[in-house]
Design the sequence.
């Protein structure tokens, strides 16, 4: 399949590097200020070297990538809230051209889900977004295969940064600020970690789950009740531990409600994953609980989910 | 979609009962000595009541179910080894008629995988068999979506009966025979438990995984190195426990080898699931390890996997 990639960060780069292994050609890639386009397939190594040395993937305009010949657009620009731009506009243009869209960007499907599905209904293209929830973990594909109406609730640990901080605090008895600084040193937390530690990122993933599971309404971040981990003292973790429990940032979608916040969970529970691991539990109507866990972030991990989505798209006519 | 169901045990019955929720019609169902057929869709409650009261689903010949009008055959007769009959014959007939086949029966894809895939290649019908490995857990669909060549190894706890026995022995310090009798009382183990406790069932699932993962050869049960749990003394579990470990019956497919046997695993490890839970770990080339766990057996659980497979089949032309 011919792929155009919007976004040349860790995810966009990994998709470009791995696409060839699955037999795909990358015909266009754009960063925020430039693009490289070749209808016969780009030389990815050369493009990424240029990005590293000159800070730009090419000499074309980013718009040229969106106008290029491709079968599926990979939308891997940073997640934005509210109008979810520029990601939403990229999705809109691709669907209006009857092209498929595979999203790593959470914005369009968390903040403007109804508009995205309406555009997809009028398009010969399909929209898939496995990579937006739980990285490499096959959450949305499982919900799709089971049928959303057979899933009665979803919950899990959906932010690796917050989980790393909480599990380190619990294991070492250290304070929040200390562990956060350590996480920043390790590259597990960003310089501004608020999106992760305040629960926004986990909430967006829960909103996407809620949109997929809901039959009759649309959710946005404004519908989620969100509390972060930044106010948890080590003493709370110590108290939990004395009772055989620990604290995790749990997101839950159940009964039409979306809630994200620190929760007490048994230390032996499936939800008490450690480090940056993510887990999603799906409660099913007829098959009990499914636990799906793995790496919830990272370039190759997220690219793996994107390529799995591409694998599920209908093949283009030869 | 119109479904024909071969087998009216727990799995076949559950498929029949749940198919309507997904909008499917069951046009035929067969047990070992009779069949009920209705091209407009059977009254499932009436058929299953008849099975309960008279021991037969209908008055037609089982052959009539295989000759009926349907889009997909659900093969849910008991797993047999060697020639995998009569299941293999059912698969063959359906594919020769260009119909889809969804298997719960492990025999045809464990013992005659090459023949099944060759038949499918010559057919307009597809073959799916998610229900044969790990019950409701989405193992084969995940491998399919990721691409088999990106999975470097698979291992897990694939037999709920053996796991129930081992985890009860470990938790209670009881002997094998005692716990097995308890499991039989609870309906977790069959009167003849050898298929489960000797590792054959787990090995068949590993053979199926090996067949799906292999690119260049076919595996059968004869290729698996299998050891059961029937010779494990409580003292071995006690020794393991003193070292923070426990024993689980682990099946593993890696480097072209299939091995099933009791293994020491850390008590906190993901593989140390308790009770009848199953878990599968997939080692991926680019996304680390995925853990997928849930209920590995049971009528509605297995039926859920079958219906998920049906959900992935191409829709018939209207």
Sequence:
């Amino acid at each position: 399949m011919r792929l155009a990639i919007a976004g040349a960060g860790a995810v966009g780069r990994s998709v470009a590097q791995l696409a060839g292994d699955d037999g795909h050609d990358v015909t266009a890639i754009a960063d925020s200020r430039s693009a490289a386009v070749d209808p016969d397939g780009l030389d990815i190594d050369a493009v990424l070297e240029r990005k590293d040395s000159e800070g730009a993937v090419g000499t074309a305009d980013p718009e040229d990538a969106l106008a290029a010949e491709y079968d599926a657009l990979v939308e891997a620009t940073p997640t934005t809230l509210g109008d979810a731009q520029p990601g939403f506009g990229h999705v809109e243009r691709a669907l209006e051209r009857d092209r498929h869209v595979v999203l790593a960007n959470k914005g369009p499907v968390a903040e403007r889900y109804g508009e995205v599905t309406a555009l997809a209904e009028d398009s010969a293209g399909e929209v898939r977004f496995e990579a937006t929830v739980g990285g490499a973990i096959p959450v949305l594909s499982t919900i799709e295969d089971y049928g959303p109406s057979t899933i009665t609730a979803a919950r899990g640990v959906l932010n690796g940064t917050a989980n790393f901080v909480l599990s380190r605090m619990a294991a070492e008895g250290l304070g929040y600020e200390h562990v956060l600084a350590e996480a920043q040193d390790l590259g597990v937390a960003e310089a501004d970690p608020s999106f992760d530690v305040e629960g926004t990122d986990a909430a967006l993933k829960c909103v996407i789950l809620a949109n997929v599971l809901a039959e009759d309404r649309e959710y946005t971040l404004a519908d989620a009740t969100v509390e972060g981990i930044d106010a948890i003292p080590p003493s709370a973790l110590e108290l939990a531990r004395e009772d055989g429990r620990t604290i995790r940032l749990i997101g839950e979608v159940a009964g039409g409600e979306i809630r994200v916040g620190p929760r007490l969970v048994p230390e032996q529970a499936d939800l008490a994953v450690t480090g940056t691991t993510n887990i999603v539990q799906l409660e099913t109507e007829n098959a009990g609980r499914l636990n799906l866990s793995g790496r919830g972030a990272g370039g190759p991990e997220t690219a793996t989910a994107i390529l799995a989505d591409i694998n599920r798209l209908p093949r283009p006519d030869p």
User: Anything to note?
Assistant: Chain A has two domains: 2-135+299-312, 143-295.
